[in-house]
Amino acid sequence: MIKTDRITNEVDAPAKIILAGEHAVVYGCPAIALPVNSLRAIATFTPHKNDEYSGLRIIAEDLERGLPIDLSNAVDDALALTAKLTLEYVKHLAPNVTINLRSQIPMASGLGSGAAVSTALVRALCSALDIHLSDAEINAIVYEVEKIHHGTPSGIDNTVIVYRKPIYFVREHPIETFNVGAPFTFLIADTGHSALTRIAVGAVRDLFNADQARIQPIFDEISVLVADARSTIEMGDQATLGKLMNRNHELLNLLTVSSPELDTLVNAALNAGAIGAKLSGGGRGGNMIALVTPQTQEIVHQALLSAGAKTVFATTLQPSTV
Ligand code: PMV
Q: Which of 69, 79, 178, 189 has its CA 20 to 30 A from that of 320?
């Protein structure tokens, strides 16, 4: 039975940033990620009228995909694979609907666009079929799809995006969230250079395999840093969180995943008064984040634009208890 209730015809999923611990998280270290609700992937579904079309059509206009998706080609097509895995999981034939996907999240820039689009698509399919899946079930499906984008994903992107809450994430461990002691505002600035996460992850893998004795201590330091970052967020301690972000950026540089553009934006933010700054996500391009106060937000924003950022926007982690 296909739902036609207009109110439930639209579902979405947020973008995300990684506050600390990217890359090391692939090797079992903890990492902290936050949802960014102001940027979303959105899926709407429309049941087909009588003989208009038969079966499932997925239209992803602003994802550079205007064509209906072929479910039989679900090997390296993330959208087709998402639909196929979802239908297999719920043991249902494809519904007779068109799903329109659009995303406000730039692709290949460390903000989780792939996981967000997959999540929105799973939700839309389930909504169309009137089937409820838990977040854990959706997360497992999206994780399988993430393997196309990332090769060996840790699972952090899909987890923060599906659960939509700040997470302290350790690969293959139950999801943990944490208290937030004070508001923390981050500016997110885009270098304008897209970079594929799986290339950066592969480069770190090569580095690790070539010189484990040098790289393992970097991962160990990141692990301690991430645990400290969690405590500072719980205590509402902005100054210490800023220092930890700066150190995390230095360590990511040692892992070769920064870029001249990312370093330029990080330095511009710090020179303009940001409390801390670092790349966020896979690196080598994509986005960086800067921790700011209400007093420094505007000047850091302008400094990032002057230093070449293509877009800058703010997101605030609000105080909360779990
Ligand atoms: O999708 P991105 O670019 O935010 O990168 C995800 C974070 C990594 O740690 C680099 C990879 C992973 O699978 O955790």
A: 189
